[in-house]
Every structure is written in C-alpha cells, then in structure tokens.
Design a protein that fits this description.
single chain, alpha/beta, Rossmann fold, six-stranded parallel β-sheet, 8 helices
Length: about 250
C-alpha cells in the first residue's frame, strides 16, 4: 500500500519527527511506499482566505465554502491544495502525526483540514460518511502528549483520548475514510521537564518507537472504529439505532 504521512510539529527533530521516521522505516521494510508532508517545514499556509483564490465568484464578500465549490467547478483550485489532494488520492492509508496541544491538534493541522477538504469537491450533501470521497481508504492518528499515560482516561485530569480525538476521527469518517484505532505516545517531554530520569525516558521512548512501527505496519488488519452511516439515520438525521447514538 501507499501511505501518506501528514506531520504537524514545528521541529522536525522532535519526537513527532522520530515517529514519522519510524513509521516510514517499518512500512518500507514491509514493501510499502511512503510520502511525508511536514506542514511546518514546507511552509503550508493553514489560513483559509480569499487571497488563495484567483478566480473569485464573489469579489467583495469571501464565503469560504462557496469559493471552494466554485474553484472546484471552474478548475481554479489553489495549486498547493491540488498537490495535497493528489497525494491523498494516491494513498491507501493516511497517517496524521501531531502533538496534543490544548486537548486537540495544532492549529496548523486544523487549517490543513480547512483548506484541503474542499466543499463541493471532496464532499457534498450525499458524498460523505460511508459514501464519502475517500471510501475504501484508511486513516490513522498518531499523537504525542507531555503527560504520562496514567493521566488520561474518562474523567481523568489529562482528559479522555476518545473525546479529545473525536472531532478529527469524525471528520475523517465524514470524508469516507475507514478510521483505525489511534496510537498515543505519552510522557514525551523536553530535556529538564521529564518526570523520569533521562536514561529511563530514552529507553522507554525507544520502545514506543518500536511499538508505533508495529502498529502502523499492521494497519491493513486493524479493526475500524465504529461510526454510523447513512442507513443509521432517519430523514432528519436522527439516529435509528441506539447503539450508534450512544457511541456518538
């Protein structure tokens, strides 16, 4: 399979960068191909704005979704966005690699979603969820945190991963991806801030890199996270099956 990694960390020498390299090595050993987009290093502009569109439908008011639809229909999608879409269309698996900042992804990654997943192109009123544009492709989140694993869980002081990652997971499901269980590398702290001795942390993080490599290399066999599809809603969009409603 071909794997596309989107990395969202300002320092390529960070542990997030190490995780991307570990994934690339593990996947390449198994005969897969990998391409990496380092959003910070590439200078990707995450801010959706009128200046990106050379053939505006409305020269006065900027309505992002309307301009995205117009750009798709008129063949004037911004070049950097077209490149991202082409890479996604090549990929069998999408990996999002990022640190958890303020209980969510960095703004850079959110901006990548805002600009790349074009209204009227990569989703419409009917082309979404289990009938989405990327149907048949998989997506996987790899997240780092500063706090140790013991700090996370339902009601825990660090928050609940299922809750904090839900917006990204559901957005990927919205686009048609089969969403796989995430990988979390906890207790990743800079020099002088770790709750462990430096040697202990280095040893533990080496084992984390190995575990992540094994996790991403097994992506083709990982079970999908459960999400509702069109058959689970009534005409008003309300759930027909209570088990999906509870999971949502």
């Amino acid at each position: 399979m071909h794997v596309r990694i989107i990395q969202a960390h300002p320092d390529p020498g960070s542990f997030n960068g190490a995780l991307s390299r570990a994934a690339t090595q593990a996947l390449s050993r198994d005969g897969h191909t990998v391409s990496l987009q380092d959003l910070y290093a590439s200078g990707f502009d995450p801010v959706e704005k009128g200046a990106h569109y050379t053939n505006r439908q409305d020269k006065v008011a900027f309505v992002p979704l309307a301009e995205q639809r117009h750009a798709w229909q008129s063949g004037s999608v911004p070049a950097d966005v077209l490149t991202e879409i082409a890479e996604l269309e090549r990929a069998d698996l999408l990996v999002l690699q990022f640190p958890l900042w303020w209980h969510g992804p960095p703004a850079m990654l959110k901006g990548w979603f805002d600009r790349v997943f074009l209204s009227g192109g990569l989703y419409t009123s009917r082309v979404r969820y289990d009938a989405g544009y990327f149907r048949g492709r998989r997506a996987l989140l790899s997240v780092t945190t500063g706090a140790p694993e013991s700090a996370f869980g339902p009601g825990a002081r660090g928050g609940d991963f299922a809750t904090m990652l839900w917006p990204l997971h559901y957005s990927l499901h919205y686009l048609g991806f089969t969403v796989l269980p995430p990988f979390a590398a906890c207790g990743v702290q800079g020099h002088g801030y770790s709750y462990e001795a430096e040697d202990t942390q280095k040893t533990r993080l080496r084992s984390v890199l190995a575990a992540w490599g094994a996790h991403v290399a097994s992506a083709e066999t990982l079970p999908a996270l459960p999400f509702p599809g069109w058959q689970d809603w009534d005409a008003a969009g309300q759930p027909l099956r209570t088990e999906h409603a509870a999971r949502g």
